[in-house]
């Protein structure tokens, strides 16, 4: 069977994704006032963050429509036998819902998967699935393996901008005011696809230290082979982390990966996070 992979633009769209002949990325929409932009096509993260800092217009994000997915699935049905459509967490966006409804309107079989994650971890899931298929696993076995891996993910993010978190509707006015006055930095965790406040710290350095503690704790329970350091525009901070981690954990691979424009709308350009998939017991 020939399999097509469909995802959305919250994926870390590096060469392994954008040059793969069987991977198709559907752009999210970024709304700036009355203007609409296709994420990653008409607006880059750098351009977005510049607008965030200079524009007083309301900036929001929107998932792709059912019709966009239906049209793509119909086009893929000409050349493929089946589609695996894997997307950003359903708790962050309605993208999984749009894809699921579109899948019911087409003739080709479509398996829609909620990754419960975003950015490079989503990329890693897709590439793992492709590798498993190449190694001879059946479609059903690959889907089972993907869901198993999804449940072994851990992600922690220190928000770079309380103001942007407030503007995007992810933080109420009182919490924003108190946090700004006290210079609080929330550390967010993604658990079962849901975003929650893991801890509140009073400095960036304390936040970095606590996220390293989370990683140490995880390593005391399970092995980890690869780790994604996630960043907004602060790639230098991410690289500094990688240098430090690589010395401490020489057997683990660390990569720096951008969070992307859609996520930047909510958390700001100075955001830094860490994400990994633990190995099976």
UniProtKB/TrEMBL annotation:
Q: Which PANTHER family match?
A: DEGV DOMAIN-CONTAINING PROTEIN DR_1986-RELATED, FATTY ACID-BINDING PROTEIN TM_1468
Organism annotation: Rossellomorea pakistanensis
Mind telling me which Pfam families this protein's record contains?
A: DegV
Q: Which UniProt keywords apply?
A: Lipid-binding
Q: Which domain of life is it from?
A: Bacteria
**InterPro entries recorded:** DegV (IPR003797), DegV_C (IPR043168), DegV_domain_contain (IPR050270)
Q: What is this protein called?
A: DegV family protein with EDD domain
């Amino acid at each position: 069977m020939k399999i097509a992979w469909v995802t959305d633009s919250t994926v870390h769209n590096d060469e392994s994704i954008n040059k793969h002949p069987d991977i198709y990325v559907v752009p999210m929409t970024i709304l700036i006032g009355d203007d609409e932009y296709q994420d990653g096509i008409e607006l880059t993260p750098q351009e977005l963050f510049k607008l965030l800092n200079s524009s007083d217009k309301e900036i929001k994000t929107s998932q792709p429509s059912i019709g966009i997915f239906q049209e793509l699935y119909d086009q893929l049905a000409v050349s493929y036998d089946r589609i695996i459509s894997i997307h950003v967490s359903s708790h962050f966006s309605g993208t999984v819902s749009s894809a699921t409804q579109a899948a019911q309107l087409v003739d080709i079989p479509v398996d829609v998967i909620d990754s419960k994650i975003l950015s490079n971890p989503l990329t890693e899931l897709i590439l793992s699935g492709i590798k498993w298929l190449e190694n001879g696993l059946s479609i059903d076995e690959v889907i089972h393996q993907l869901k198993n891996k999804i449940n072994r993910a851990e992600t922690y993010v220190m928000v770079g901008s309380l103001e942007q978190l407030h503007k995007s509707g992810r933080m109420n006015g009182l919490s924003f005011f108190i946090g700004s006055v006290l210079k609080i930095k929330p550390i967010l965790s993604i658990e079962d696809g849901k975003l929650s406040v893991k801890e509140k710290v009073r400095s960036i350095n304390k936040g970095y230290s606590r996220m390293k503690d989370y990683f140490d704790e995880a390593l005391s329970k399970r092995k980890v082979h690869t780790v994604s350091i996630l960043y907004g525009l602060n790639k230098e901070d991410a690289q500094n982390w990688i240098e430090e981690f690589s010395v401490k954990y020489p057997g683990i691979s660390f990569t720096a990966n951008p969070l992307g424009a859609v996520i930047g709308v909510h958390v700001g350009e100075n955001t830094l996070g860490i994400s990994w998939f633990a190995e099976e017991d």
